[in-house]
Amino acid sequence: MKIIFMGTPDFAVGTLEALVKAGHEITLVVSQPDRPKGRGHELVPTPVKAAALAHKLPVYQPARIRREDAVERLRDTEADVIVAAAFGQLIPKAVLEMKRYGCINVHGSLLPKYRGAAPIQWAVIDGEEESGITIMQMDEGLDTGDMLLKASIPLEPKETGGSLFDKLSALGASLCVTALEKLEAGELKPEKQGEPPTDYARMLTKEMGELDWARPAAELERLIRGLNPWPSAYTRLSGKTVKIWDADVCEEEQAGRALGEIVRVTKDAVYVACGQGLLKINELQLQGKKRMDTAAFLRGYRLEEGSIFQ
């Protein structure tokens, strides 16, 4: 098939690579504009743009896909279908309906759960037992189109936002290739979504990572995993930021202890009082220092029982 591919971050690269490998003709790759990064604010290409250029594919980066010149560029580009994966802008009706098979999307959740910007991380944060990919026929809503094909995977006990991201990126790539084969053969039966059982998976922010020690330890442990590697979970001790990278839940209670208080320090872990239970910290990173397991951290930095994380 002739395909216009629309995508921006790492999550979409696998799908683009899979479509190329499957022998589809990518007539245009549409990605977000390059963004400045680092101290020098040098413009850096999006991961999808970099992958497209490696395959010598034409790239188009409109500031707004709704602009008439952008719509005309896509209309003038020959294609049977538009494939979108984490593009990052709402696509207008004129674009959704301009090609023979419309526009299909590779979405990182089992719709109708977790419509929105960060479905992968919220599945971990909310303690879901499974997640997956939905190939969807796009409409004008935010992830509301008919479902065409699904595939699911279980979440591991120590699943992080990063590990699930990688798994679903690979799953989405293979499922998209299968969906296009079935689409061309007329073998897909669109299914309406109905009402979502979860709230929209809102965009992640750095502020979300601040640990509220009044919450149960189980919730904090999931938050730590869901926000790993970005934006990461953190707390503060003696005015310095401490990132928490890995933790376990201890059900024991410590009556009379302050929230965020270090109640026990062993050779390889730190136990902190929460609204319910204790959080056993296994890996952390002090501001200005490298990430390390707690045993290594404690060999160079003393943590006293009774100290308070804030």
Written overview of the protein:
It is a single chain. The protein is α/β, with parallel strands linked by helices and 310 residues long. The protein folds into 2 domains: 2-184, Formyl transferase, N-terminal domain (Rossmann fold); 206-300, Formyl transferase, C-terminal domain (Methionyl-tRNA Fmet Formyltransferase, Chain A, domain 2), CATH 3.10.25. Helix content is 26%, strand content 26%. It has 8 helices and 15 strands. It has helices at 10-21, 47-54, 68-75, 93-96, 119-125, 161-184, 217-226, 294-300; strands at 2-7, 25-30, 35-37, 42-44, 59-60, 81-85, 103-107, 130-137, 147-154, 233-237, 240-250, 262-265, 270-273, 278-286, 292-293. The strands form 3 sheets. A 7-stranded mixed β-sheet has the order 5-2-1-6-7-8-9. Strand 1, helix 1 (10-21) and strand 2 form a beta-alpha-beta unit. 38% of the residues are buried. The model has no long low-confidence stretch (mean pLDDT 96).
Unreliable stretches (pLDDT < 50, length at least 5) are none
Number of beta-strand segments: 15
Strand proportion, as a percent range, falls in 25-35%
CATH superfamily of the largest domain, called what?
Formyl transferase, N-terminal domain
- For the record, what CATH class of the largest domain applies? Alpha Beta
Q: Taking all residues together, what is the mean pLDDT?
A: 96
Give the domain tally.
2
Helical fraction: 25-40%
CATH topology (fold) name of the largest domain: Rossmann fold
CA-atom Rg in angstroms = 23 Å
Shape: elongated
Q: What string gives the helices and strands in order?
A: EHEEEHEHEHEHEEHHEEEEEEH
Structural class: alpha/beta
- Cα-to-Cα separation, first versus last residue: 56 Å
Largest sheet: 7 strands, mixed
Task: Examine the secondary-structure arrangement and name the CATH architecture of the largest domain.
Answer: 3-Layer(aba) Sandwich
Strand order of the largest sheet: 5-2-1-6-7-8-9
Instruction: Please count the helical segments.
Output: 8
